[in-house]
Amino acid sequence: MEIKNIYYNLMTNLIQTNITKFQKVIKYILMGLITVIALKYIPDYKINNKEIIMIGATSSITYAILDMISPTIKISNFKN
């Protein structure tokens, strides 16, 4: 019974870890797409599609790096 609980906890943690990684990747892709859409439709002058994609990729990669190196703030209430 004990081994079954350990296995269940391990698999649950692995699934949750993969879900959070997937959510982060989706977040980075969305950041790049939002940048690309903004660069496509906001400026008054025409920007090359190659430049738009490069700027979108750069913003997505920069966001990913900042998200990885910045500390995550976790608020918890402890009662003494």
Keywords:
elongated, single chain, 80 residues, mainly alpha
In N-to-C order, the SSE pattern is HH
Mean pLDDT: 82
Number of E-type strands = 0
Shape: elongated
Indicate the proportion of strand residues.
Answer: under 5%
Question: In terms of structural class, how would the helical and strand content be classed?
Answer: mainly alpha
Report the total helices: 2
Domain count: the total is 1
**pLDDT < 50 stretches:** none
Cα(first) to Cα(last) distance is: 35 Å
Proportion of residues in helical segments: over 70%
Round the Cα radius of gyration to an integer and report it: 20 Å
The biggest sheet, with number of strands, parallel, antiparallel or mixed sense and barrel status, is: none
Would you give an account of this structure?
The chain is mostly helical and 80 residues long. The chain has one domain (2-66). Helix content is 76%, strand content 0%. It is elongated, with a radius of gyration of 20 Å.
In short:
It contains 2 helices and no strands. The chain has helices at residues 2-41, 49-69. The radius of gyration is 20 Å and the shape is elongated.
